[in-house]
Design brief:
The protein is of the alpha/beta class. The chain folds into 2 domains: about 10-60 and about 325-425, Aspartate Aminotransferase, domain 1 (Alpha-Beta Complex); about 75-320, Aspartate Aminotransferase, domain 2, CATH 3.40.640.10. Helices cover about 40% and strands about 15% of the residues. Helix 7 packs parallel to helix 8 and helix 11 (about 325-345) runs parallel beside helix 13 (about 410-425). The strands form 3 sheets. The protein has a 7-stranded mixed sheet, sandwiched between helices. A 4-stranded mixed sheet has the order 1-2-3-13. Strands 11-12-15-14 form a 4-stranded antiparallel sheet, with helices on one face. The protein binds 4'-deoxy-4'-aminopyridoxal-5'-phosphate (PMP).
């Protein structure tokens, strides 16, 4: 029970005493209230939220339409388990996402609760369809904290440290990254190397890749790479899974980022912003692939909860009503322009990149591309929070600052946030 005199410091002390230390926390702040792109802490301080609960709040904190839909659902029924007694919102959500997913083929969907669970299920489905075990992921990728998804995640500390062994038959190819010296040819060559050194392509079920690496640093997978990877996949009967847990739900200017790919993925994972702050995730994909597991092979007690489905349907309606895909593209341009202005004054900011409103800057000591500036990144994020802006870092080297502000944020608020970021850099000079 929170008491009136509780400060962030008092609550942090209770947290440290009561909560396992493995659960990290970006900011020593306890929230009291959130509305659209602003939050207020327990001491009454107001913050602009550029983190969105890690890409969950594309429609903002407590969007009135989402809250109204959830309230109505709460009054009707909250849980039956879809495998026991079905409910229409699950089916409608499947129909909606099947229609939105790219690819000129019939699609089906499955709903779960978390992003990691979506990835786990995409792998299960790909294995059941291909009857093959292997999965190839990419360096710097992030796919979750369960054992299989940790195996696929391409970054050891802090995610994998001390938790192995992970399930077998997972491999990592190089993610193409021009800034860090990995060309598209290098990346494709690394796949061939896996085929030579580790597993024959005929035993590989799927490639799994994020259209834009989220935790890995907002690196965009080039379309040429995706096209050539798909060609390779087709040659060997390997499926292509787009992990859109972070890129999905309109963040990149289209509902799914893979709509911007030159080829359609066979399966897409989705979670986070699809339900505006309520836990639901899904796998959407080729109907023939999705139907590979037999009845009873997929599901979960809370999987595709009625509350999550109602929230997700409300989010889809908000996207239509408020034209949020268009907004995502315009906001992306505004953010990129603002961040480029900062880059002209801050030599450490060497790259401004992203897709749609999924935008980030990468920091290097003295602007030297061989020296990722993790400490400066941490300091800027902390300074910005002191000045009332919540930011998140990311990147394999912890030297990227990402922006995941709600798409529903007003321009004036976005500009205010960018100004706080600029001021934070200036204060640290
Ligand atoms: N895949 C990607 C691309 C993600 O960004 C995340 C979460 N950051 C996950 C999977 C895991 O999602 P969750 O934390 O909901 O399990």
């Amino acid at each position: 029970m929170q008491r009136e005199h509780d400060t962030n410091a008092v609550l942090m002390a209770r947290r440290h005493a009561a909560v396992a230390r493995g659960v990290g926390q970006a900011h020593p702040i306890f929230v009291a209230r959130g509305a659209n792109a602003e939050v207020w802490d327990v001491e009454g301080r107001r913050y602009i939220d550029f983190a969105g609960g890690i890409a969950v709040l594309n429609t903002g904190h407590c969007h009135p339409e989402v809250i109204a839909a959830v309230r109505a659902q709460l009054d009707a029924y909250t849980h039956t388990c879809f495998q026991v007694l079905a409910y229409e919102p699950y089916v409608e959500l499947a129909e909606r996402l099947n229609a939105l997913a790219p690819g000129a083929f019939a699609k089906k969907s499955l709903f779960l609760s978390t992003g990691a669970e979506a990835v786990e299920n995409a792998v299960k489905i790909a294995r059941a369809f291909t009857r093959r075990p292997g999965v190839i992921a990419f360096t710097g990728g992030y796919h979750g904290r369960t054992m299989m998804t940790l195996g696929l995640t391409g970054k050891v500390a802090p995610y994998k440290t001390g938790f192995g062994p992970f399930p077998g038959e997972t491999f990592h190819a190089l993610f193409p990254n021009a800034l860090h010296g990995v060309s598209i040819d290098d990346a494709l060559h690394s796949v061939e190397t896996i085929f030579k050194n580790d597993i024959e392509p005929e035993r590989v079920a799927a490639f799994i890749i994020e259209p834009v690496q989220g935790e890995g640093g907002f690196h965009v997978a080039p379309n040429e790479f995706i096209a050539r990877l798909k060609t390779l996949a087709e040659r060997y009967g390997i499926l292509l899974i787009a992990d859109e847990v972070q890129t999905g739900a309109g963040r990149t200017g289209t509902w799914f980022a893979s709509e911007q790919w030159p080829v359609a993925p066979d399966l897409i994972t989705t979670a986070k912003s699809m339900a505006g702050g309520f836990p639901i995730s899904g796998v959407v994909g080729r109907a023939d692939v999705m139907d590979a597991p037999g009845p009873g092979g997929l599901g979960g007690t809370y999987a595709g909860s009625p509350i999550g489905c109602a929230a997700a349907l409300a989010v889809l309606k908000v996207f239509d009503d408020e034209q949020l895909l268009q907004r995502s593209r315009a906001l992306g341009e505004r953010l990129a322009a603002g961040l480029r202005r900062i880059a002209t004054r801050v030599p450490e900011v060497r790259d401004v990149r992203g897709l749609g409103a999924m935008v980030a800057i990468e920091l290097f000591e003295g602007g030297d591309l061989s020296k990722p500036a993790a400490e400066l990144t941490r300091n800027v994020v902390a300074e910005a929070a002191r000045r009332g802006l919540i930011l998140l870092s990311c990147g394999t080297h912890g030297n990227v600052i990402r922006v995941l502000v709600p798409l529903t944020a007003e321009d004036a608020l976005v500009d205010e946030g960018l100004q706080v970021l600029a001021d934070s850099f200036a204060a640290l000079r």
